[in-house]
Each structure stands twice: as C-alpha cells, then as structure tokens.
C-alpha cells in the first residue's frame, strides 16, 4: 500500500511544478472562480490526461481511480474497532471507460483512429429454443471513395465507441471490485436465482461494452450471458432519456448569468484561436468547452497526439491550450451542478428520477425488505455529475472515464436496534461534501441529503415552462 500511495503523490505533481496531492487534485479550492481557468500556472491541477494511464490515485481523466485492494480502507470507526459492523449493501454507479470522441472537427482530423483490436458485437438471440445466431460484430472501415471522408476522420472506429484500452480498464476495474467487495458480491451472479444482484445500463453501446468488461472482472468463471436492465430509451431515467423541455429552459437561464458570461470573456481568445485552427466556428463548438475537451481527451486518453489542422500540419493544439480547455471544462461542470443558483432545480429535472430509484433501493435496505445486496449501474458523466452535485461535493471536476460512486451500507452489530450507516466513496475515497466527509453517517442522513433532489411531479415540472 505504501508504494501505491507514494507513486500517486509523485505523479500528481504535474508538469508545472505545482505540488498537489492525489486527494487534493479532486478538490481544487478555486474552482468556483474564473481565475481557475485563466491562471496558467495551475496546469492540470494535478490531473492526469495520458495513455496508457498509470494506476494512480489522483484525478485521472482517462482512468479514474476506483475502489482498489491496495488503497481501500474500512470506515474510520470500523477500522479502529470502536464499532463492529459489516457491509450489507452496495449501490455502485460508474461512467463507461475510455472511448473515441463524440465530436469530430468540422475541418476533419489529421490522425486516424484505430479500433481493429476490439470487436463491436451486436446480435440478438432467442431467450430459449430457436436457432442460436452467429455472433456478428460491427467492423468499422473507411471507404476512400466516400467524398465526406476528407473532412471527417480516417480509420476503423465509430464515434464514439469504447477502445481496447477502455475495455481492459473495465476488466481491471471489475477485478479490483471483486478483490475489495468479495465478501459481499455473490461469487456467482446466479446465486439465489440472481435476486441478490441488479445490473443496469443506459441504452448506449458504450455502457453496455463497459459492462461486459467490468462484469467479466467480477465473475471470471461465469458461463453464459447476463441480463443488463434498461428502460426504454425514449423514457429512460438515465442519460437524459425522457423529453423535458424545462431542462433546456433552465440550462439557458444558468448559461446567461454574469458569472457564466465572465467565463466566456476570459476564454474568448482561446476559443477563437481553436475555432479558426479547426474550422469550428459554430456555437456548438464555442458556447461551451464540451466539444474541444471531448476531442482532446479522446486523443490523449487513447495514445494519440493533440490534433493539428488538416491543411497545415504546423498548426497544432498545444499542451498549454489543452490544459486551459480542461480547466474550463472542469469549471463548467462545477458551475452546472454545484455553483449556480438554479442547480437544485436543474438536478431535479435531469437526474431526479434516477436519484429517486437509488433512494428507493436504500430505503428497502433500511426497512429490511431488500433481497438485493449489490446493484451496479453503467451510466454517463451526465449522470454522475448531477448525483455528485446532489451529494454536495466540495468541488466538481468533470467526472472522467470510469469515474464511480459507491454507496456502502453498513450494519452496526453492536447496537440493539438495527442501525445502519452509510459511506459514500467517489473514485475510491470518501467523498468530501458541504455536509462533511461522508465516511460514516446514519443511512437516514444520507437519504435526507438526497431527498430534496427527487421531484414530486416531474411531468408537470417538465411542462411548466
Ligand atoms: C495562480 O495559481 C498559483 C498557484 O496556485 C497562485 O500561487 C497564484 O496566486 C495564482 N495567480 C492568480 C492571478 O490567481
Ligand atoms: C475511532 O474513529 C472514530 C471516527 O474517526 C473516532 O470518533 C473515535 O474516537 C475513534 N476511536 C478510537 C478508540 O480510536
Ligand atoms: C486513410 O488511411 C488509409 C490507410 O492508412 C490510407 O491509405 C488513406 O490514404 C487514408 N485516407 C485519407 C483520406 O486520409
Ligand atoms: C501554416 O501555418 C504556419 C503557422 O501559422 C504559417 O506560418 C504557414 O504559412 C502556413 N502554411 C501554409 C501553406 O498556409
Ligand atoms: C463554491 O460554491 C458552492 C455553491 O455555491 C459552495 O457550496 C462552495 O462552498 C463553494 N466553494 C468554495 C471553495 O468556495
Ligand atoms: C433561478 O434562480 C434564481 C435565483 O434564485 C431565481 O430567481 C429564478 O427564478 C430561478 N430560475 C428558474 C428558471 O427557476
């Protein structure tokens, strides 16, 4: 364990001479201010954006830390034996692992992406009887006669799709969860007719692909398929599945405040230089940092260089520009889900139904009515962000690839009445919030923290504007 922590401290120091510990890299104290974006000496604030990512306890966008046998500690009062308690329930949420980008430059990309080492399986099979299908897989290719290829991206991928690095990271993530939570997670997913576990994903191929890798790490010897529960895509409670015009109305309010505009002002020259270099002078590229950050992250996280202009290879995004893009992206995530006056309403509209589903799982445990012991949800950054916001995280950087929240429920054996405590880990460590560090709180307190984010009537809220 000592060696692991040592590595983390050293590599989190970053290239700008700032010395930031692995834990501190998650919580930049200045993230509420636009100076966090403009202060170039902050670099990546101890964050890592490299491939292949080294196992590290710092904020590591390409491979976020997760509960790990070398670093996992029991809750403080359990570890020091002042309380005798055992883990009885785990609600686990994670973003999919790393991938190709969603956003290809309007002017095209100067480097191809390669995905030949991963087969994108897509097939259906009757649940019983009937012929077994041939397990076909999608194999993306670029046809040189396609006239659109010149201003798109060459290679053998879909955009987005999981990469081989993402798949392998997921497998390791699952192995580490097995090592940490092996006493709780059933040794076979079929134990008790499968009633102890609940596996859920969004409708996206990214989260399903991640699940295949992670679950293999958890159950290395399992034979046969496993069900991954999904709601219908048109009304899914994750990944913004259901339609709700109030979401975009509130977002427009949030993105027209003086503070939001200040962040556009301090980044004006950066945005205009990148827009010119990559022919990306449209509002979808320049009104937030989502697209540039996504494009750069996908390059760096999968072993490619930062991009250059297709027509002129001497015009390239610099590392300093990428760092500023990442700081601006972090600032925006913190602003959307924590530091704007309408954050609670926005979280209710976007994520409130899913937060309600999580709370119902926790309440069933509280009432002793749960057969479930382990629920694992494969979702997106856009799901993790609002939930971290609801928990009141002290500062919210963009939840990176494979970022994860573990809601642990512990049963205190010593008290006469059944007494349940909760701990919430974010990327493997007790989350630091405006309610304190959530390392040992009554389960009822955790439910009280989340309750205000569950909408009473989402249908009328969605229609109300
Ligand atoms: C920029 O960040 C550095 C490192 O935290 C700090 O010492 C300096 O005061 C900051 N500068 C400004 C202008 O905020
Ligand atoms: C054990 O840890 C808890 C929580 O940090 C603390 O309140 C308590 O005093 C500690 N007890 C002992 C015996 O060290
Ligand atoms: C795409 O890559 C192939 C294989 O490397 C190469 O032959 C072809 O010229 C490339 N096409 C473009 C438009 O860059
Ligand atoms: C390519 O960009 C460089 C740097 O901006 C510039 O000096 C050069 O003239 C450009 N080359 C062409 C062919 O446009
Ligand atoms: C940032 O703003 C949020 C919400 O307004 C607040 O709860 C938090 O304490 C602030 N953080 C700092 C470091 O000032
Ligand atoms: C956003 O918050 C402000 C300040 O609390 C409030 O006046 C306004 O009504 C809110 N906007 C919406 C759309 O709820």
Bound molecules: 2-acetamido-2-deoxy-beta-D-glucopyranose
**Can you say what the CATH homologous superfamily is?**
Phosphoglycerate mutase-like
Tell me the Rg in angstroms: 22 Å
Stretches where pLDDT falls below 50 for ≥5 residues? 1-15
Q: Report the oligomer.
A: single chain
| Tally of DSSP helical segments | 15
Distance between the termini: 53 Å
Specify the CATH class.
Alpha Beta
Descriptive report:
With 465 residues, the protein is an alpha+beta fold. The protein has one domain (1-97, 164-203, 234-289, 314-465): 3-Layer(aba) Sandwich (Rossmann fold), CATH 3.40.50. The chain is 35% helix and 12% strand. It has 15 helices and 13 strands. The chain has helices at 2-11, 35-38, 76-79, 164-181, 205-218, 245-254, 258-266, 268-277, 283-286, 290-301, 319-337, 343-366, 381-391, 443-450, 458-463; strands at residues 85-95, 120-121, 137-138, 197-201, 308-309, 312-316, 374-379, 404-412, 419-426, 429-430, 432-433, 436-437, 441-442. Strands 1, 4, 7, 8, 9, 10 and 13 form a 7-stranded mixed beta sheet that branches. Helix 10 (290-301) packs across helix 11. The longest helix has 24 residues, at 343-366. Residues 1-15 have low confidence and may be disordered. Bound molecules: 2-acetamido-2-deoxy-beta-D-glucopyranose (6 copies). Residues 250, 253, 341-342, 345 line the site of one 2-acetamido-2-deoxy-beta-D-glucopyranose (NAG). Belongs to the histidine acid phosphatase family. Keywords: Signal.
């Amino acid at each position: 364990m000592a060696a692991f922590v040592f590595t983390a401290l050293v590599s989190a120091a970053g290239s700008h001479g700032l010395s930031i510990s692995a834990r501190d890299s998650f919580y930049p104290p200045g993230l509420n201010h636009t100076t966090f974006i403009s202060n170039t000496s902050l670099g990546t604030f101890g964050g890592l954006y490299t491939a292949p990512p080294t196992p590290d306890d710092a904020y590591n966008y390409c491979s976020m830390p997760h509960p790990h046998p070398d670093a996992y500690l029991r809750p403080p009062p359990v570890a020091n034996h002042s309380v005798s308690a055992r883990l009885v329930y785990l609600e686990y949420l994670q973003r999919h692992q790393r991938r190709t980008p969603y956003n290809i430059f309007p002017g095209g990309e100067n480097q191809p992406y390669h995905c030949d080492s991963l087969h994108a399986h897509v097939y259906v099979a009757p649940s019983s009887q009937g012929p077994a299908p041939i397990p076909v897989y999608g194999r993306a290719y670029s046809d040189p006669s396609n006239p659109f290829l010149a201003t798109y991206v060459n290679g053998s991928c879909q955009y987005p799709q999981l990469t081989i690095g993402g798949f392998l990271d997921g497998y390791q993530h699952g192995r580490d969860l097995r090592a940490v939570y092996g006493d709780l997670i059933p040794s076979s997913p079929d134990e008790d007719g499968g009633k102890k576990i609940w596996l859920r994903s969004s409708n996206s191929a990214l989260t399903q692909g991640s699940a295949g890798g992670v679950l293999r790490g958890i159950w290395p010897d399992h034979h046969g398929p496993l069900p991954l529960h999904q709601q219908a895509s048109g009304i899914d409670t994750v990944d913004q599945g259901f339609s709700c015009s109030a979401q975009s109305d509130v977002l427009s309010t949030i993105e027209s405040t003086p503070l939001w505009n200040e962040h556009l002002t301090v980044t004006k020259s950066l945005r205009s230089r990148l827009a010119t270099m990559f022919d990306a002078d449209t509002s979808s590229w320049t009104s937030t940092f989502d697209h540039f950050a996504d494009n750069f992250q996908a390059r760096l996280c999968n072993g490619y260089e930062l991009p250059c202009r297709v027509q002129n290879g001497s015009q390239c995004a610099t590392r300093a520009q990428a760092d500023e893009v990442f700081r601006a992206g972090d600032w925006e995530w913190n602003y959307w889900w924590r530091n704007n006056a309408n954050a609670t309403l926005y979280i209710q509209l976007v994520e409130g139904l899913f937060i309600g589903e999580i709370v119902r799982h926790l309440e069933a445990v509280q009432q002793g009515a749960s057969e479930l012991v382990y629920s694992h949800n494969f979702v997106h950054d856009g799901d993790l962000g609002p939930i971290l916001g609801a928990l009141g995280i002290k500062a919210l950087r963009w939840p990176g690839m494979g970022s994860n929240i573990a809601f642990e429920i512990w049963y205190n054996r010593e008290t006469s009445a059944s007494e349940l405590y909760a701990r919430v880990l974010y990327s493997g460590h007790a989350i630091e919030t405006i309610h304190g560090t959530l390392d040992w709180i009554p389960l009822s307190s955790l439910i009280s923290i989340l309750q205000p984010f569950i909408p009473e009537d989402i249908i009328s809220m969605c229609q109300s504007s």
